[in-house]
Amino acid sequence: MVAFARKDDFEETTEQERQFQRVDISLFGRYMLENKKEFPCQIASMSPGSAGLLTPHTGEIGERVIAYVDHLGRLEGKILRTYHGGFAMSVTATDQKRDKLAAKITWLANKHELNLPEDRRHDRIAPSKKAMEIKLEDGRTYKAKIIDLSLSGAAIQSDVRPAIGTQIWLSGMRGRVVRHFDEGIAIEFGIIQTHDSLKKFSAE
């Protein structure tokens, strides 16, 4: 885990941003630098005013960044500090958006702290179409069966158990592995699905 510097070490951090305490969190997404190149990333810590990213490529301090993060959506800001394996960025937002972002971060941080594999508010269903393929980020595919699923995640019976945090696709829906169990894996979708998107798992 990257050890992030104290906010006071970020010379370009504003007074408004310094009042927010970042919390450890694990979310996946993509980011774009000023040269329009996109890269995958993982948010390792987050507050309504700044974020710590684990990335394969870092830009320059002061460079504008746009990130699209699971559960949080579009974030925009500037690189405050770079370190081995990533960078810290500011988050530019209105007071109203910061309030909403703070609520989301609090819920997500508590969910991860409690080790909940997905949002328990969504009812789980046992689909009639169980046989599916799962695909990993490198393109490898494996046969699997859906045990149950909801708008926010699924339990998958599979002989393959990718590491926790691995990005995975189930019938075009992107998610990540959040838990292992005897029969397979639990995945959490990157975005909350719609009821229509789950109809494909029901018999016609």
Explain the overall architecture:
The structure is a single chain. The protein has 204 residues and is mainly beta. 13% of the residues lie in helices and 42% in strands. The protein folds into 2 domains: 107 residues, Thrombin, subunit H (Beta Barrel); 71 residues, Beta Barrel (Thrombin, subunit H), CATH 2.40.10.220. The protein is elongated. The chain starts with 14 loop residues before the first helix and ends in a 6-residue tail after the last helix.
Summary keywords:
204 residues, mainly beta, Thrombin, subunit H, 2 domains, 6-stranded antiparallel barrel, 3 helices, 42% strand, disordered N terminus
Topology:
Elements: H1 15-18, E1 23-32, E2 38-46, E3 50-54, E4 64-69, E5 73-83, E6 86-90, H2 95-113, E7 131-136, E8 141-149, E9 153-157, E10 167-170, E11 173-181, E12 184-189, H3 195-198
Antiparallel strand pairs: 1-2, 1-4, 2-3, 3-6, 4-5, 5-6, 7-8, 7-10, 8-9, 9-12, 10-11, 11-12
Quick summary:
The protein is mainly β and 204 residues long.
